[in-house]
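Saturday, quiet lab. Running sequence design on the structure tokens for the scaffold JK sent over.
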């Protein structure tokens, strides 16, 4: 009898421990494609490091790199390479829309969560998903750069 209680107790402890490990994942927000509204899988690509900023963004949609000089500088360098050809060096628009005005093709791009979903999962036509070719950490840095241009 005492043995049964002990093993139940042990099983309960194990469950609590597992729930503890599982909870960071279950707390991940619901990310959706801008184009199709299908759920976006934000689990890391092969070899991708999940940084603290990415982990936090998955849970809160708050960009830890906002206002961080080093991250903004790195984001700016990637923006020049990967985005400027379509959105302009200062992100004020070229064949792709301006990213620094208050006019949005997709209203959700008024929020960091929406912008992340658009960059990561793509939108229409030339705005292809950048998932897999940019790390989520770099996407957050690009976003911090674009935000810095808005002020
Ligand atoms: C090959 C051209 C091209 C590249 C490269 C590109 N974009 Fe775009 N982007 C577009 C086009 C075109 C649209 C409009 C898409 C639509 O109509 O659905 C767009 C839309 C967007 C939007 C939504 C704007 C709104 O008003 O809702 C964001 C945000 C965005 N792009 C960010 C980026 C960032 C950041 C990068 C670099 C990582 C990037 N794009 C790279 C062409 C591009």
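Result came back. Writing it out in full:
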């Amino acid at each position: 009898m005492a043995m049964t209680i002990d093993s139940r107790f042990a099983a309960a402890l194990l469950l609590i421990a597992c729930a503890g490990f599982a909870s960071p994942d279950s707390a991940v927000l619901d990310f959706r494609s801008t184009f199709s509204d299908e759920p976006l899988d934000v689990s890391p690509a092969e070899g991708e490091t999940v940084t603290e900023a990415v982990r936090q963004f998955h849970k809160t949609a708050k960009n830890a790199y906002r206002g961080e000089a080093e991250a903004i500088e790195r984001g700016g360098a990637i923006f020049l390479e990967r985005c400027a050809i379509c959105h302009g060096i200062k992100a004020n628009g070229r064949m792709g829309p301006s990213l620094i005005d208050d006019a949005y093709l997709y209203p959700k791009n008024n929020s960091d969560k929406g912008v992340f979903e658009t960059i990561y999962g793509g939108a229409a036509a030339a705005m292809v998903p950048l998932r897999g070719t940019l790390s989520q950490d770099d996407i957050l840095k690009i976003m911090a750069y674009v935000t810095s241009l808005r002020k």
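Notes for JK: Residues 116 and 139 are 7 Å apart (CA to CA). Residues 82-83, 85-87, 96-97, 99, 104-106, 109, 115, 118-119, 123-127, 130, 142 surround heme C (CB under 6 Å). Ask whether to fix the surface positions before the next round.
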